[in-house]
Specification:
Number of helices: 15
Strand content: 25-35%
Low-confidence stretches: 1-6, 10-15
Number of strands: 31
Largest sheet: 8 strands, mixed
Mean pLDDT: 90
Oligomer: single chain
Helix content: 25-40%
């Protein structure tokens, strides 16, 4: 068993708890982990229940390499700790796994300490950094199969040789993996990571971190499942891996096969659709990265196959093929004044679109965007069907905007899989489904709310698959379809409210929450609610009773999540009334 980490350096304990951890993880290999204990939001605004970490690494052969840096909020203590481990002037290489600010936030500071350091990264990463650091630097671009020889460490004669391979869209287009053949450590940055802050260095307790590992995959890697599978194929060609040194969370050592198999299984499940949606974006332009990820997340919840495409970074021939083979193409707005390279890429994209495809457009919220209606008209003039109405962004994207984009993505995913889902239902034995339909249940409305003001996300749905599951503590289960928008708000550690509908007073609420809402619509418009009565969300004023629930576990089925929640609080408005009951004739619908 690995010893519990001992080298933890407190940075702040007043309002936001930050700390640093510095440990050896392999011969001549050290990690500096920045522990962000209380961060509650990340990337596409999915909630963090257990904080996160930003992990960087030092490898010392004859030459020294630093893999990634940290978030700018750790600047003083991270640089201090780095200097205690190695003289920055002696670092020969900075390997940039990818350029998102939580991993590259201190690159400019490293260059101030050593302007002779050579930055190693993908072609796209180097281009991104040129626009980020605003100072000259030495660089080498690498691709799959390239190697970096760090030479032999003079103290123990270990020869460190780093092999690189490209892992685009995991989850940025510039991502590379690095494998040290001397120590069998694979450095993957975002891939295989999880937002879980702990000073336990390795994955000693797989059961503890599995929910966060899965949640992270669903939010960031699932929408890129096609790219995940390609990366896994490359990983299988490597020698036995001793450690997966991730960019977030504990490092993976004790359950590597489990984590790899999970990624393989989950990604394979997401690649069984009848065709994929090409969700295009322009890297580092406006909010394009963030908004495209939100659409992709929503589509993947509906079990649709997704291909995220960076218009700027994708080779013209590959771009044409990816667009032409897609079943749907989602396009962002772009600037009025764009460089020749991007202009040519957009021309390639538009030329590759076919009349048989679904198309849609969304605003990037960049500077001086081409008007969305102009681009939408260009797409209509090509003769395509509209996948969803243009998504407009009038201010910097907040949680509500991202929820709207996610819900539009879910609608897109349902559209792509419509024929397959109908065929699946028709293939089920009729007598069996009639028998299943005789299972009755009550009628409920599940509500959930997270955040405040512009960052508030709310959801609601009618539920009938609800059952009490435990006495001590009082608990219940509710089945939630994977493509329900509210599912995002019902992760382990979240709260929700179960509103019980009354037998003789449920029709208005039933009709309101059973109908299909357009993306971003207010579910509670014209409905009387009681705010702040429960932690989980709004309580419906006309409900017979409510239960305030805390999610403890989630069980996955083929098309639903079974949510087990402990009930912390509840009340009833009419002790003499009965719960509305739902009777079905067949088991193929609710």
């Amino acid at each position: 068993m690995e010893p519990k980490s001992k080298n933890v350096i407190d940075e702040a304990t007043v309002s936001t708890r930050l700390s640093l951890q510095c440990e050896s993880i392999a011969p001549n290999t050290t990690t500096i982990r920045s522990l962000d204990w209380e961060r509650s939001r990340f990337d596409i605004e999915f909630g963090l229940r257990n904080g996160t970490t930003y992990n960087s690494f030092i490898i010392e052969g004859k030459k020294k390499a630093l893999i990634d840096t940290s978030h700018a909020k750790f600047k003083e203590t991270w640089l201090k700790t780095l200097k205690e481990q190695v003289d920055p002037q002696t670092i020969d290489y900075l390997i940039v796994s990818h350029t998102e600010p939580d991993h590259s936030g201190l690159i400019s500071d490293i260059l101030d300490l050593n302007n002779n350091i050579e930055i190693v990264g993908s072609k796209v990463a180097i281009q991104f950094l040129e626009n980020q650091v605003h100072k000259p630097f030495k660089s080498t671009t690498i691709k799959t199969g390239d190697n970096l020889d760090l030479g032999i460490n003079p103290s123990n004669s270990i020869h460190h040789q780093i092999e690189f391979f490209s892992a685009p869209n995991l989850h940025w287009p510039d991502t590379i993996f690095s494998f040290d053949h001397a120590t069998s450590v694979l450095y993957t940055c975002d891939a295989f990571g999880l937002h879980f802050c702990t000073d336990e260095l390795f994955d000693l307790n797989a059961d503890l971190i599995l929910p966060d590992f899965r949640y992270y995959y669903d939010c960031l890697m699932g929408p890129n499942a096609r790219s995940v599978i390609q990366a896994l194929k490359r990983i299988k060609k490597l020698p036995t891996i001793n450690t997966i040194a991730v960019g977030h969370g504990p490092l993976l050592r004790h359950n590597i096969e489990l984590w790899l198999n999970n990624y393989q299984e989950w990604s394979s499940q997401r690649n069984k659709g009848e065709g994929y949606a090409a969700i295009c974006y322009i890297s580092q332009y406006g909010s394009c990265d963030q908004l495209s990820q939100a659409i992709a997340l929503g589509a993947s919840k509906a079990n649709a196959e997704i291909q995220l495409i960076d218009i700027r970074a994708t080779d013209a021939q590959e771009l044409s093929a990816l667009i032409g083979e897609a079943k749907a193409v989602i396009v962002p707005t772009w600037g009025n004044q764009i460089d020749t390279e991007l202009q040519n890429a957009i021309g390639t994209l538009l030329a590759a679109i076919k009349t048989t495809q679904w198309v849609a457009v969304y605003e990037s919220y960049g500077k001086n965007d081409e008007p969305i209606d102009v681009i939408a008209k260009k797409l209509r003039d090509l003769g395509q069907k509209e996948a969803f109405s243009p998504l407009r962004v009038k201010q910097a994207p907040d949680a509500k905007t991202l929820q709207q984009f996610e819900e539009a993505g879910t609608d897109l995913g349902q559209l792509l899989n419509l024929k397959k889902n109908i065929a699946s239902i028709k293939s089920i034995d009729g007598d069996l489904m009639k028998a299943m339909g005789r299972i009755s249940g009550g009628l409920y409305v599940v509500t959930a709310s997270q955040g405040d003001g512009p960052n508030q996300r709310q959801g609601a749905m009618v539920a009938s698959w609800v059952s009490q599951a435990s006495f001590k503590p009082p608990g219940l289960t509710v089945a939630v379809a994977k493509d329900r928008a509210i599912e995002t708000l019902m992760q382990v550690g979240d709260y929700f409210v179960l509103n019980v509908l009354e037998e003789n007073n449920y029709q208005q609420l039933f009709k309101q929450f059973l109908k299909r809402f357009p993306p971003g619509a207010d579910r509670f418009k014209n409905i009387s609610i009681i705010e702040n009565a429960a932690k989980g969300g709004p309580v419906l004023q006309d409900a017979l009773a409510y239960l305030d629930c805390f999610v403890k576990q989630r069980l996955e089925t083929t098309d639903h999540w079974i949510i087990y929640a402990q009930v912390e609080k509840g009340n009833i408005s009419n002790p003499d009334a009965k719960t509305a009951v739902h009777h079905r004739k067949v088991g193929t619908y609710y």
